[in-house]
Amino acid sequence: MLQEKITLNTDKWIDNYADYLYNYAVSRVNNSDLAKDLVQDTFFAGLKSAKNFQGKSTERTWLVSILKRKVIDYYRKINSKKGQAEVRMNFYNDGENEGDWIEERVPQSWDNQSERDIENEELKEQIERCIDNLPEKYAMVFKMKTIQGFETEEICKELEITPSNLWVIVHRARTQLRKCMEDNWFNN
Amino acid sequence: MFKNLRITCDEATTICDKNQYGEATLLEKVKLNIHFIRCRICGVYSKQNVFLSKIYKNYSKECKEKKHCLTKEEKEDLKHKLKT
Fold this sequence. Notes:
- The complex is a heterodimer.
- By secondary structure, chain A is mainly alpha-helical.
- Chain A has seven helices and no strands.
- Chain A folds into two domains: 10-80, Rna Polymerase Sigma Factor, Chain: A (Orthogonal Bundle); 103-186, Orthogonal Bundle (Arc Repressor Mutant, subunit A).
- The chains are: A mainly alpha, B mainly alpha.
- Chain A: Residues 125-177 form the RNA polymerase sigma factor 70 region 4 type domain.
């Protein structure tokens, strides 16, 4: 079979795919600078392995598959990071009280829970601050599930985690976010 | 039999969170409702959770409408880096 020689034009790559890849990355990691780094790494990796590109998929699909790998690698890295700041737990995790609310973390009733606030700009900024306070792993999974609205199956596949793993992370993220919103918004 | 339906607050709120995405199973929902009978705190959590979901949904709508782009300078910079 005659194979066309692939000529790479990186200028074109960037004009054609940089924004697409950047959007892909930014909807998965909770940090725009990091997303930019991942895109850059993807182009470098693409360049390096360009000879392996067989033209079975489009160039864009091929680059996305490289970026996907970069996202998983990143997730693995933050997932295994030792000495990660201790997560504030909301429940006792051993002893006879295991699974009960920790007393000082028990949900309080909210003073200013108003439907009218939903469109409030400051509220959105507060949500962002609280999400940024989450451990990266939680922020990433929470955002993919809740903000981007990805299917559970899709996230599990992309990050190579199990559904029960995903729900534990979503749960921890949501209880922590709730507490952050309680302290900084609802009962502030 | 009922012993199997008993869950901790940690488990109850996990189900409650899962339920916000409509993905809790029937058995999980049964367990959750049994838990609510004896646990007022998780009841509060659950009510507030519904409100939070509303807020997140609204926030999500706005986020998804936003299209992210690299600036012209960033693209030029990237081109330059790739060439060297």
